């Protein structure tokens, strides 16, 4: 889900409570996270931007290697060597809930009426050249484009890495943030709450990726 404080609805300085899973802003005195820790005795929080863990209300950083699995699920990374072997050494992974799954072949949550988009996103995630490019964030993170284009690329890359993550907690992934970027970039032509045409969505999505990566509509500039 979108990384917003469940009380203030702010996306700034948001922490996840590792006991109940809710998001709260800040960790200082009178902050929503601090108050939550005192009222419910939930003490371990994760900053969703820095991926650092803190104990509240004492407000000290927790450094423990056993928590690395949590940060990897939130932000999985892939080396060039790992990517090169994705199709050569495919093997089943076991999620923390005991479910077995094949990385890259996992479900996407149907939030309301976004199954048409899910089908396209899953298909694109299994196109090796496209997949390999977006699994490495360095390929596009520094592209000089308007903020909306950068957000679109980052969200697609994040979703791609989560779909191919061999250490997922569950055998399905939420596309919520990717779909929010779609709604924004398509000017609400494609929505989460309204069924759309898969072919039209595929055409728009590929053109949106092309433009966000610096392409133009001129034929001589297109591949």
Automatic annotation (TrEMBL):
The keyword Chaperone belongs to this UniProt entry's keyword annotation: no
Main enzyme class: hydrolase
Record flagged with keyword Zinc-finger: yes
Pfam families: UCH (PF00443), zf-UBP (PF02148)
Keywords linked to the UniProt accession: Hydrolase, Metal-binding, mRNA processing, mRNA splicing, Nucleus, Spliceosome, Ubl conjugation pathway, Zinc, Zinc-finger
SMART domains cross-referenced by the UniProt entry: ZnF_UBP
GO molecular function, one term: cysteine-type deubiquitinase activity
Subcellular location: Nucleus
Residue ranges annotated for the USP domain, each copy included: 106-223
EC number, UniProt record: 3.4.19.12
GO biological process terms, semicolon-separated: mRNA processing; protein deubiquitination; RNA splicing
Catalytic function, reaction form: Thiol-dependent hydrolysis of ester, thioester, amide, peptide and isopeptide bonds formed by the C-terminal Gly of ubiquitin (a 76-residue protein attached to proteins as an intracellular targeting signal)
One of the record's GO cellular component terms: spliceosomal complex
Domain spans labelled UBP-type: 1-81
Family: Belongs to the peptidase C19 family.
Descriptive protein name: ubiquitinyl hydrolase 1
């Amino acid at each position: 889900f979108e990384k917003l404080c469940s009380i203030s609805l702010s996306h700034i300085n948001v922490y996840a409570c590792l006991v109940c899973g809710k998001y709260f802003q800040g960790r200082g005195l009178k902050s929503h996270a601090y108050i939550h820790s005192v009222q419910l005795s939930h003490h371990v929080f994760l900053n969703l931007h820095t991926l650092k863990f803190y104990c509240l209300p004492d407000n000290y950083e927790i450094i423990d290697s056993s928590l690395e699995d949590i940060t990897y699920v939130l932000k999985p990374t892939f080396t060039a060597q790992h990517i090169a072997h994705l199709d050569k050494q495919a093997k089943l992974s076991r999620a923390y809930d005991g479910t077995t799954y094949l990385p890259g072949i996992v479900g996407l949550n149907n939030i309301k009426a976004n199954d048409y988009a899910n089908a396209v996103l899953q298909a694109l995630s299994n196109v090796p050249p496209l997949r390999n490019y977006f699994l490495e964030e360095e390929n596009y993170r520094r592209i000089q484009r308007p903020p909306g284009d950068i957000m679109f690329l980052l969200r697609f890359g994040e979703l791609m890495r989560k779909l191919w993550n061999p250490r997922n907690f569950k055998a399905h992934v939420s596309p919520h943030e990717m779909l929010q970027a779609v709604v924004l970039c398509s000017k609400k032509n494609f929505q989460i709450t309204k069924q759309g045409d898969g072919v039209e969505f595929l055409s728009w999505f590929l053109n949106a990726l092309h433009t966000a990566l610096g392409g133009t509509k001129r034929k001589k500039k297109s591949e």
